[in-house]
Each structure stands twice: as C-alpha cells, then as structure tokens.
Specification:
heterodimer; A: alpha/beta; Rossmann fold; 2 domains; 7-stranded mixed beta sheet; 3-stranded antiparallel beta sheet; B: 5-stranded parallel beta sheet; 5 helices
Amino acid sequence: MRPEDVETIRAMVHARSGVVIDPEKTYQIETGLAPVARRAGFASLPDLVQAIRAQRDERLLWAATEALTSSETSFFRDRVPFRVFREEILPSLIADRGDKPIRVWCAAAGTGQEPYSLAMILDDEQAKLADARVEVFASDISERSLERAQRGLYTQFEVQRGLPIRLLVRHFEKVDEQWLLSSRIRQMVRWRRINLLADLRPLGRFDVIFCRNVITSFDEPTGRRVLDQLANALPQGGWLVLGADETVGGASERLKPVAGRRGIYAPNREAHAAA
Amino acid sequence: MKTCLVVDDSRVIRKVARRILEDLGFEIAEAADGMEAMAWCRTAMPEAILLDWNMPVMDGLSFLRELRREPDGHEPVVVFCTVENDLEHIGQALDAGADEYIMKPFDGDILEDKFIEAGLVA
C-alpha cells in the first residue's frame, strides 16, 4: 500500500469513527480491507482505495470503516470485570434500585460475547435478583458485527476462549460445526447500532456501562468527549467499566476511579455539579 | 512446581502440549494410554491431567472413572483434550469427574485459558 493510500484510509476511519489507526500497521489495514474489496467486487486494493477516495459510495466507506475498527473479543474477557459485576456491581444495584429496572449497556460490543457473558451471569443469579428487572442493551458501530452477534452462532474456537465448559453445556447447542447460543440468553440482550461519536443523550440513563478497550482507540479529544457523554449517562451509584489497562486520567473530571478496581469508574458528582 | 500428566497416544500432541504447559510452569510427565496413566497416578498423583479420549489399551473416559475411585483420585484437576466435540461426550466427561474440556484442535491460548478456568494457572 502506498503511503498516500494509507493516509486516505486513516482519514476516512477517523472522520467516521474517531478511531486512530497506527500508520505503521499497513499489514493490518491490508488484511482488514481485503475482504471488503472482494465483497464489493474490486480486483485489487488500489481499486478499492480509489473508490473510497471518490467518496461516492457511502455504504462502501462504512464497510471499510467497520472492517478496520472491529476488534477481537471473547467470552468473559479478562474475567475480573465480570466477577466484579457479579459480586459487587449487581448486589449494590439490587439494593439501591427502588422500583426501576436496572439498565446495563455494553458499548462497542462487537460480536456479542461481552453482553452474552453478562446475560449468562444474570441467568445464574436469578435467585438473588428476586423481582429486580435487569435490561441489557448492546451496541456496536458495525452492522456486520451486530448481525453476527444477534445470530449468536460461534465457532468452536470462539466458545473455547473464556467460556467455562459448564456454561457451554448449559446455554449452547451444536449446529454443524458451530455453537448456537440459546434463544433464552439471546433474548435477554437488545441490540442497536450506535456510533459513540453521536449524541448519546437520547439513549437515556444506564446504571452500568461496559465500554472496554474502546476509549484508547480514539484520539484524545474524542476519547474525552465520549467519556464525558458516558459519565452523563450514569446516575449516582452508577458504574463505568473500561478495559483493564485503560484509565480516565485527566480526560474526564466527571469520573473517579473505584478504589482497588482497575478500569472501573464511578460518576464524580462534585465535578458534575460544578460543570 | 506443579506436575501435569499429559495422556495422549499421539507423540506429536504430547510434544506440543508439553511445550505449552512447560511455559505455564508445569513439570510434565507423559503417558500414551489410560493404563500407563493409571500406573503413573498410583506412583505419584499429579496436580493436573491433560487427557485424550480415544486411546488404545484404556481410553480416557475409562481412565477417569477409575482414577476418581482411587484413594486421592479426586485430587488431580482433569482437563479433557479430544476431537470428540458433541454435547453427549462432553456431558459424559463432566459426569465422570472432568473439570474442563478442550475440543481439538487447540492452541496455546485455549490451553492456557482452560487451565486458568480450571484454577490451575493464576
């Protein structure tokens, strides 16, 4: 790929998604775009780039953006946040909820392993939930990921990453050489296409937001803006779960770290009042 | 150092598993079938067993059932590792006392993940 082609692609992805692509990772750009070129019927990558530069086909631009912003995910990824969800977040929300439903949002949920992991936890904890209602929302920028996530069909490789065998037995059935998640768990999650660059206020409030390994893929001002929007969506007593290696740092004064819980934040009401 | 007994009739698989598990900090012992594995366990019970299903002399499931009847036979954490990949086989393995289950083919990430799941690796 020529450097000017790489720049065209980087500019497109950044304008549409806020995601910054490392210009050194030419190989990743090429492998990401190859299937897009193939599906759209281009003979080569330069042909695709030329069409992207012409900016006429909006669907093509999105397909290319989606292909370069989707990242790998797995069931119960990193384990700890899910344990914290089960053992700390959920009990605290059940105790405080009043008569309102508990609302959970997985932002940038990719192919669905994260919200489905939460749904399996909720299924497991039904006794503790008693009459509390929990609503799980999940979103992604990629239409293709959303389609895959909603199907709930995973490869043998995917169901062996992070998913305990007992949960596979309990919630999946084998369909040919793939594994289909039960409709009971699938129906616990509501899907929607959301670009985090958009105005998120219409989505309403969420008691828990999982937004893992996303913020660091943005440029700094974009990351700060998204964090502020997420902070605004959290009520008092709400929780924001970022990736284990992600920090808010000085990016948002509206969030404060939860002591001893890496990557987990609570709304900072004092800053909020001042803002 | 924890010991993991790798039970598989394929020398290639044993070698691959050994390399991955040594990196995870295990001392490795090998057995080519369930009978050999049993002899090993009666001499020195390992902390972990990576267990193939289809083997000559004694298959993995028969070995596991016999192991769990031994004194101290409940101790090892047993992770099946087999081409059998349907729910019926998995269910049989869990009923017989398996702790985790890997469907071949596997790679280092899956093996590590399953060992974490089974509490063998932090």
